[in-house]
Design a protein that fits this description.
By secondary structure, the chain is of the alpha/beta class. It is built from 12 helices and 17 strands. It has a 7-stranded mixed sheet with strand order 12-11-7-10-9-8-17. The termini are far apart.
Length: about 350
């Protein structure tokens, strides 16, 4: 079995999870980490015992022994330049979403990965949620027949929404609905989205952070299937990073419903009332086990690098997701539907090509 050397750039919440998973993985020979906050660097280094722990990520890119990097940095505008530097250094790249801020940046990264024959994947961890994977299987094996419509409603707490909205001016479409856009497009492939209509609300976050509270998106596919995604980040403060999701997939022969609202486990105390543990999107460690999809996603990337396999999420798929959420932002701004393909005749509708 080939073992690899991997670097984690950015060891905050998500990067810390990936560092811990990598440190325990049999696929990993050496772990290297980079983090600009010294206190967090020392904390993660103490938990993972890396070969290198540095504040300068470029020192890791200069190390020819490192095979792959996992980029978990914030704010999000750092994704594109660090991913580009990593590829130029010959490293396979796992990049947290979003893939970039502009489609042209995504195109450049995709082309660079192909030119240098590097693996390049994006962090859409919900594909590694067994409930979500079951929905895809129920479509692929014909259990519910041909898809007719789909609905995904996702909400997170405003403490996390404020954290995201305060560091980057990206909407819930780009930062929350993006996971569910990826999930539905994955389930419906090879169908392609052709039209997007969205509405957003600004009653809480707008004044302070200039971002919407929530967005509701309707997407039409090229075979007539329609799906709706609602994403918001203004639930009252609760268990850290609480996330509640409901999914409906309706087909010609049946339907699959998924309750991912995390109400199956709850704890109630005199101090905090009722809370729902094990409820964050990435998941968390519970003694000897890990509850959530992010650890599985991390191990999948490490295995792909070691074996030279294509990761489950392709960069081209992430680019398509980006097109959809950018179209949703444009639709919400103009109050008009947005076409995702060029039209042969002039139109009064906005178009995102």
């Amino acid at each position: 079995m080939r073992r690899i050397n991997v670097a984690i750039i950015g060891t905050g919440w998500c990067g810390g999870i990936r560092a811990v998973a990598s440190a325990a993985s049999p696929w990993v020979n050496e772990l290297h980490i980079a983090e600009t906050r010294d206190e967090r660097l020392q904390e993660v280094a103490g938990a993972t015992k890396p070969v290198t722990a540095t504040a300068d990520y470029r020192a890791l890119l200069e190390d020819p022994s490192i095979d792959a990097v996992m980029i978990s940095t914030t704010p999000e505008p750092t994704h594109y330049p660090i991913a580009k530097e990593s590829m130029l250094a010959g490293k396979h790249v796992f990049l947290e979403k979003p893939i970039a801020l502009e489609l042209s940046e995504a195109d450049e990264l995709i082309a660079l990965a192909k030119e240098k024959n590097l693996l390049f994947t994006i962090g859409y961890s919900q594909r590694f949620n067994p409930k979500f994977a079951y929905v895809k299987r129920s479509i692929e094996d014909g259990t519910i027949g041909q898809p007719v419509s789909a609905l995904v409603s996702r909400h997170i707490t405003r403490n996390l929404g404020k954290k995201i909205g305060g560091r980057v001016k990206l909407s819930p479409a780009a930062m929350e609905a993006t996971h569910d856009i990826d999930f539905v497009l994955w389930c419906l492939a090879p169908r392609k989205p052709i039209r997007v209509y969205a509405q957003e609300v600004r009653k809480i976050m707008g004044a302070q952070y200039n971002v919407p509270d929530c967005v509701w998106i309707v997407v039409t596919m090229d075979d007539g299937v329609v799906f709706t995604i609602g994403a918001g980040w203004v639930l009252p403060p609760a268990y850290p990073n609480f996330s509640s999701t409901w999914i409906e997939f309706v087909g010609t022969e049946g339907a699959t419903m998924v309750d991912d609202t995390h109400r199956d486990v709850y704890v109630t105390t005199m101090q905090n009332g009722i809370q729902f543990p094990l409820s964050s999107m990435p998941g968390e460690k519970v003694n000897h086990v890990y509850a959530g999809p992010m650890q599985s996603e991390t191990l999948h990337f490490l295995e792909c690098v070691a074996l030279g396999k294509q990761p489950l999420v392709t960069a081209e798929q992430a680019r398509l997701v980006m097109q959809v959420y950018q179209a949703a932002d444009l639709s919400a701004e103009t109050n008009l539907p947005v076409d995702l393909i060029a039209k042969a005749t002039p139109s009064t509708e906005p178009a995102l090509v």
